[in-house]
Amino acid sequence: MTAPSLHLVVPGPLDQRTGGYFYDARMAEGLRRRGWRVTVHSLDGRFPDADETARTSMAAALAAIPEGATALVDGLALGGLPEPVAAERRRLRILALVHHPLSDETGLPPEVRDRLAGSERRALAAAHGVIVTSRFTARGLGRFGVDAGRVKVVEPGTDRPPGGAVDQVAGAPPRLLSVGAVVPRKGHDVLVRALARIAHLPWECDCAGSLERDPGHAVRVLAAVESQGLADRVRFAGECDPVTLAALYAESALFVLASHYEGYGMVLAEALAHGLPIVSTTGGAIPETVPPEAAVLVPPGDDAALAAALAPLLAGSDREARRQSGAERRAVLAAAARRHAAALPGWDDAAAAFAEALTALARRDDRSGTVGRGISR
User: What's the CA gap between 139 and 150, in Å, rounded?
Assistant: First the structure.
C-alpha cells in the first residue's frame, strides 16, 4: 500500500527557531518516521499581513499540489490569505494548523487586528479542518465560526533533557532564563521593568531569542536595560542553537516568561522538563500549560506583580523570622515541575496523535467540497 502523503505549506524556511516552526518541523519529522511522505512548500513574502509576493507564492504552491491531495497550511500563512485557499478547496483537502489566532498578537494597530480577524475567519471557513496546539486555542476558534467537530487538538511534545537543573554555583547569584523572540507579545519590556524593581536582590538574567523579528521593539527593550542600569546583569543571547539553549536551561535557577499571550507555551513545557521553577503570567493558555504547584503566575503586563512574584524566590534566608530562603522556595516549585514533566508527551507521542488527527480530518465528510475523502495515497 502506498504511504500516506502530506503537503505542508509554511511561510519561509521551516528551520526558523520559533516555537511554531519548531512544532511544524518536529511533526514533519515524526510523520516521516512513521512512513509518511511529507513535502514542504516554503512561501515567499510577508506574513501574516500578506503582501502581493505572499499571495502569488501561496497561489502557486497550492496550484502545484496534485488534485485530491491533503495540504496542511500553517496558520501564519493561511490566516492572511483566504482567497487562494477558497479557490483550491474543491480540488484539495486543505487543513489549517493554528498555533494561535493572528489577531491575538500583542501590539497590532486596531485596523490591522480587525483586518486579520476578518481574513482569518474567511480562511478558516474555507479549510476542511483545523489542528490546534492547545484546548485553549480550540475553544477560542468558536469566535471565528469554526465548528468544534472540525477541530483536533495535538499538543506539542517535550524532549527529555539529560540530568536535572543546577540551581546555582555556590556564592553566585541565581540565574534567571527567559526564552522567546524579542517581540511585544513576549513582554521583555515588562520583564525589564520588573527586574529594575528588584535590583537590590542577587540575580542575573539570560534572554534567549531573536532580536530581528521586530527590530524597533528590540532596540527599545535594550535601551530600557541600559536606562535602568541593568546592562551588566541582563544578557541577550539572540537565537540559540539547541545545544546552547539546553546549556542555558541546565545552568539556570528559575525560568521567567512575561508573555502577554501564549497559544500553548512550548518553552514553559521545556522549563518544566528541565525541572525549573517558573514565574510567568496568566496570558492565554499558560495556566493550562503550567501546573499551579510548579509556578507563580501573575496578570500579563503587570511589572509590579511580576517583581513581587520573583522577589521571594531570590531572597536570602531569614532564620529569625523562620522564612524559607529563595533557594528553598525554588526547590519546592522545581520538585513539582519534575513531577509534572514526567507525564508530558514526548515528540513521538505527539507525532502519533498528529497522524491520527490528519487522517480523521481528511476523512471527514464535507458535502460542500468535491475532493475525495481520505489522506492521498
Answer: 12
Helix (H) or strand (E) run with residue 115 in it: helix 110-126
d(CA 76, CA 120) in angstroms, rounded, equals 10
DSSP lists the bridge partners of residue 129 as: 95
Strands, E assignment, the chain: 5-11, 37-43, 70-74, 93-98, 129-132, 151-153, 175-179, 204-208, 234-238, 254-256, 278-281, 295-298
* pLDDT tens sequence for the chain (377 residues): 678 999 999 999 999 989 999 999 999 999 999 999 999 999 999 999 999 999 999 999 999 999 999 999 999 999 999 999 999 999 999 999 999 999 999 999 999 999 999 999 999 999 999 999 999 999 999 999 999 999 999 999 999 887 544 544 556 899 999 999 999 999 999 999 999 999 999 999 999 999 999 999 999 999 999 999 999 999 999 999 989 999 999 999 999 999 999 999 999 999 999 999 999 999 999 999 999 999 999 999 999 999 999 999 999 755 544 567 899 999 999 999 999 999 999 999 999 999 999 999 988 755 444 454 445 43
> Residue 277 belongs to what H/E stretch?
none
Place of cell 506583580: 305
Which residues have CB under 8 Å from 192's CB, separation 6+?
Answer: 221, 224, 225, 228, 230, 234
CA angle, residues 242, 247, 252, in degrees to nearest 5: 130
CA distance 73 to 55: 14
Cα 269 from Cα 286, distance rounded (Å): 10
Phi-psi region of 9 (alpha: psi -120 to 50; beta: other; left: phi over 0): beta
**Side chain identity at 302, as an amino acid letter?**
D
Place of cell 498528529: 354
- The conformational region for residue 325 under phi > 0 = left, psi -120 to 50 = alpha, else beta, is beta
Residues 53 and 67: their CA atoms lie apart, in Å, by: 24
Integer CA distances (angstroms), 252 to 111, 187, 246, 304, in order: 41, 20, 10, 23
